[in-house]
Design brief:
7-stranded parallel beta sheet; 14 strands; 2 domains; alpha/beta; Rossmann fold
Chain lengths: 313, 313
Amino acid sequence: MRVTALAGGVGAGKFLRGLVRAVPAEDVTVIVNTGDDIVLHGLHVSPDVDSVTYWLAGVADRERGWGMAGETFRAAEKLRELGAPGSWFNLGDLDLATHLFRTDLLALGMSLSEVTQRITERFGVRSLVLPMTDDPVTTRVQAVDESGSSLDLHFQEYWVQRGAQDEVQSIRYEGAEQAAPSRGVIPAIEEADVVVICPSNPVASIGPILAIPGVRAAVAERDERVVGVSPIVGGAPLRGMADKLLPVVGVDVDAAAVATYYDGLVHRWVIDRRDTDLLERTAELVPVAGVFDTVMDTDSRAEALARYVLDLH
Amino acid sequence: MRVTALAGGVGAGKFLRGLVRAVPAEDVTVIVNTGDDIVLHGLHVSPDVDSVTYWLAGVADRERGWGMAGETFRAAEKLRELGAPGSWFNLGDLDLATHLFRTDLLALGMSLSEVTQRITERFGVRSLVLPMTDDPVTTRVQAVDESGSSLDLHFQEYWVQRGAQDEVQSIRYEGAEQAAPSRGVIPAIEEADVVVICPSNPVASIGPILAIPGVRAAVAERDERVVGVSPIVGGAPLRGMADKLLPVVGVDVDAAAVATYYDGLVHRWVIDRRDTDLLERTAELVPVAGVFDTVMDTDSRAEALARYVLDLH
């Protein structure tokens, strides 16, 4: 069974750990958000691509959710001591190696996809990890700070640097209209037996992928093969700031309502057992509604969820 | 007493530790070689500028000679694991912060001198550290490998990557003729009471500085105010590969002969007490010859040497 997953960071990473236990890792293609990629200190940082890579490689830090297990932050601490402009972004020492390597290969003229293939290979990842595009796309947040001043922020500035403290007015995926899906993205959607929308932030992670010309239409065409897992559990995201971004796009922060963000795309939608009371409403919004334990504290739980998702009819 | 020093890496660093104990640190200006600067993984690395900064800041690793004390190499180890192209250059985690910071500031449009001022300030260095130029100058080594193939190597490739194993045919300072001394370099030489040529590699460290238009002439004009310390002790450099590079420019590897590299520049020349037998020959080559303990295992010894150097007449 060939599975193609649309993925952001942590939530997707945990789910993918389970997915590659449910089906052979080689049969999984992951299309990853690059809208929150950022150049810091001259280095090309791809947070979601790295998260997916680290999770699939089994080196992710489960507690922290991002970065590698056993990470240290010596360089980052020194950077803060020096007062470096980009030091608000906490780059781990091991993680830095990935960014340095990526920057090296990009400088040699390789595309982000080619670089990602090289990196995932070196990390022993057997699934195909595809950045959504090789073109520059940036998720930008239009917001107002507490003094009422308008801000136009890179997503990472909004989220990591300023801690999602500003009132968001709108979100845009700069460059998306001019971008092309990276090689393999459209075929991976077209040829999949199942297309999974991972439990990632719809606005910050999945939205940018769907905004790449051709992707939304390709997913829509797969119809009943498309299944999504709610990133909202008990009226809140498990991690992140989806609760602040969903209202901006007119979507309520609950496991059923969030399916409407994928209107015309998801055929089957899985909510957490804690939201069982929303099952009926969910069934009104999507053709097939399912309920399962979606929290994924362990790989076994993630595997059980993946099997449920793949079998749901 | 205002002292201006021409400096490379380790030997200069040790000497400068003593110099700023002999005179107020604020009265010292250090003009530093940037010929072995290199861009690695997108980061601007300035090995000699950093060495001088770390030594003056008191954070240098005395045993290793380069980098900071208490350094770790987590990112570098990971980079080698990944097989990154630039991983032969062993960047420490703390050291990386300096390179990331420098790259940040250069990207903001600051010159290398401005960046260096900012970095040295943050490290608490009270002396003025001036990169010899803000323009790109690269020391390149024309060599032949063991199979007889010609190589044209960046100095760091010759030295760090290939371990100085190739037979050197010539050395050139690419870009030097088109470069301008950085702001403050010429006045620092003109206004100094003493100009010191540190015990650094003449060909790899001091040569590039003297190759910047205007610098050699400015030093020559200071005449009897110019004093040098031999980097060669007992017929060999204490560290580095000066023994391989001096013959290429026609200079014998001994404490007296190396003064001839600075022909017409150094008025006083200090050799190590282990080379006392060369004192007579040294006196034939330079107007004033001195002999002292130049090895500088401790700051006190470096201070004693600095005082000797400043007082020599």
